[in-house]
């Protein structure tokens, strides 16, 4: 990978060592220009007219995202963020009394809240699969629970928001297919970070965001729904894009993933997200993954060499997210001190996510991307108290 070009394409690299890519990455110049150009067009000729004029660029989004994750264009929906994309898929599942929902100890809190709401409303049960000795979802335990029957959905995050691990998404997909169970994957931290192929993973639904590792605009996201599954799910709400009105009292829902869309949307963002997907595809998912995980491994080694720092990451397959604590220093204070030296990190709050009651209140989270370099890592370590 030409890291120098990636950095030259990223104006923010000249100002900060940005290690908060799991929050929102720095966008590259082509994305910035695409969004700015379309917004400028809207201001000069009108929003509807701009969308009509750039219809090809808007439509290109579906093929660009599909190509990045190994899907088909009709299996992609444009949604305003990953949480809403995930919600649309989850709440479309026809849960019934006694249905079991299986998830992981490190589940994202927004997803966990949705599980509990559906469990209370429909009489479903939420069950947490334990971790293995490495802190990753225990596949043998998952297989045993699937064999008991009654599972409506297996739902997990590909990469948790903290703790540095990558869940075994492909192995989970194999088990779900063997047992005929729906599989929903939250990939908001993995698309643009790892090589993600929905056919290889075997998920039925996948949610993703623009603002994180894809380096797209904020306020953009997407939903993948496997073609055969989309037709079996009724979205929790419909509009004139998702369905066609049959006057006076009927309607017909689209038979593809766009049944999860609404007509009004951030058009400049959709165009920008397509450009971001193309940018990632041009670099190559495997090359991105190698670069990101290599930088993260280097950072973990640097932190481990510093007295008083505890790296918290676990799992057999580490991600680009690095979480740690500094003895005697609050994580929020470490973040502020780093910011004062133009180094961006964030604060993770493990206790507010997942089902682990022993999680820490707070930890520092540094998340690298391919445009970061070794100097960025040095600047972080030098900024630590």
Automatic annotation (TrEMBL):
Entry-linked Gene3D superfamilies:
Aspartate Aminotransferase, domain 1, Type I PLP-dependent aspartate aminotransferase-like (Major domain)
Under Gene Ontology molecular function, one entry of this record is: transaminase activity
Per the database record, which ranges form the Aminotransferase class V domain?
A: 19-380
Membrane-spanning intervals of the chain: none
Tell me the Pfam families matching this sequence.
Aminotran_5
Alphabetic keyword roster? Aminotransferase, Pyridoxal phosphate, Transferase
As cofactor, the record names: pyridoxal 5'-phosphate
Q: Which family does it belong to?
A: Belongs to the class-V pyridoxal-phosphate-dependent aminotransferase family.
Q: What is this protein called?
A: Aminotransferase class V-fold PLP-dependent enzyme
The organism's lineage is:
Bacteria, Bacillati, Actinomycetota, Actinomycetes, Streptosporangiales
